[in-house]
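As described in the Methods, two query proteins were run sequentially through the folding procedure within a single session, without resetting any intermediate state between them. The first query and its resulting structure tokens are shown here.
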Amino acid sequence: MEVSGEPIEDEMVKIETFFKNFKEPANLSDIRKRVETFISACTDKPIVMVTSGGTTVPMEHNTVRFVDNFSAGTRGSASAEHFLEKGYRVIFMYRTKSLEPFTRHVNVYQLLDSLSFGDGERLQLSVDLSRKLSSIVRKYTAHKENLLMVNFTTLSEYLFYLREIASALRPLRSRAVLYLAAAVSDFYIPSSLVATHKIESNGPLSLHLEIVPKMLRPLIKYWAPNTYVVSFKLETDENILLQKARKALLRYGHHLVIANQLHSRKKEVLIVTESENQKIVCNEDGVEIEAFIVDEVLKRHEDFRKASRSGSPEKVQV
């Protein structure tokens, strides 16, 4: 598959320049150790890194204001649960305070409204919520050893962690999946242009934002080659959705794009590969579309692993 765009060597220069703009997160080496320990316990189980939630771009070094990418983390957190139920070990890299596996099912105010005082000061939980919590706790207890949580807030944290974790997954080759569901900022403010303290609000504000270098090509070629890579494409215009998904596959050389429209993303998606596209529609009450998405990813990942074991090419190099 021929890949369009500028030479990857030029892209790598831009990427290294981008990383030099930011301080390395203080906990990066700790995260690497946690991930390596988690991976070492995988034995022969497949493993998936699910990214989830949006990234922030701080406007000040002592951050008060920031530019945000909206995402509640619904798709990522739901998908992580379904991967766990199918026997995968999951590294869940998520935006702080976005939805998380298992806890996403319980609203704090719903919990408070379901509590009451019985005899004395002993709290009692309503029967309905007690049953719901029992089911969630059973699932969490069954899967918690196969779940590693890594949280981020800013764009730079996300990309430092992505590079570090993807590199740690490299030895697993076709056993690993990168399921990149996070809503990642396309623009950033260079460090030299970020204010040190809170920006004064005594007049109009102009911001200069640079384009974030695309990380998929180096991820596929250098950081985690021979892993199965799934990206997501969100558009508001139905007429360009499939075209943009195919363009992403052509440019980056990965395996699968989950394409969806903003307003129908919870009910309908397109599964797009180099040679086909498949629509998934979910209109069943109480059924999450992520269950169908994960099933499709698993089938295609298994085919990918079989091709790897048989010695067939897993992917034309970018």
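Immediately afterward, the second query was submitted; its sequence and tokens are:
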Amino acid sequence: MPLNSTVNSTLVPNTFSPGFRLCAAMFSIIMILVTIFGNTLVIAAFSLQRRMRTVTNSFLVSLACTDLCVAAFSMPVWLAYLLTGPEWTLGEILKHTWTMVDILVGTASIMNLMAISFTRFLSLRNPLRFSESITSRTVAAIIICVWIYSIGIAVTSHFLYSKRIFNLVVTITCFYAPLLFILGAHFMTFKVALTQVRQIRATVPAQYLGNQNNVLKEYKAAKTISVIVGAFLMCWLPFVTLNVIYSLCDTSHDCPIIAPELIMASKCLHYGNSLLNPIIYSIMNRDFKKAFLAILCSRS
């Protein structure tokens, strides 16, 4: 979502004070290091622990790769801008590339979340058919399609960079539409889970205990994904909303005044989402927590 094009507009302050540069540099460096560490840990846990190689975790690793892209490229460029701005002095090629990467990771993130939400719903609705149809090859194909689609949107944005209507179309098709799908899938997932719990209670006790444990495990996984989706929404919605305003605003007419602090905060917030995901896994997912501890303790 190319709100990056506003960073050198008249909405930003005339100068960045030395104190602001120092605080921004320290905060950004810490955020970059923690994001790289946390998401590398997610990928390592998936690679080294066989029991972690589930369908959902495959998509979470793909999501971690998008977060690593943010930490390795987008955040450092943002830091360089904060240190050299408010005028953009880093060249147009880097500016366009930065925007493309932001669109790439934003699209890939929400598409991965959409795939996770859909597979969670299928696994609860029909577990036997799910295990037969959603194989490792199927998951790999879906992840490849997610990245090809995201790269295609990012590359297209390079050629239509100056078209504000394109920014609006991308925002709707790559954020709001997938978000509605995700929310609908989660609603259906929890509805199916509650229905199954009621049905299990009507079975004999021996069957009840085992089946209930399976449903509860799926329910907890869905709950974790819900928190991840909530964090994504909280972190990205302000940025996307400002992008919609930018896309609809005609500079030849009166535009709403957007405080520069709001632009800076929204940009920082959506980058901060890349830091949150590993923290959510370690708090809410017991398997990830055990895998993280095993990796860290083995290397200590």
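The CA atoms of residues 115 and 142 lie 8 Å apart. We note this only descriptively and draw no conclusion about the first query from it.
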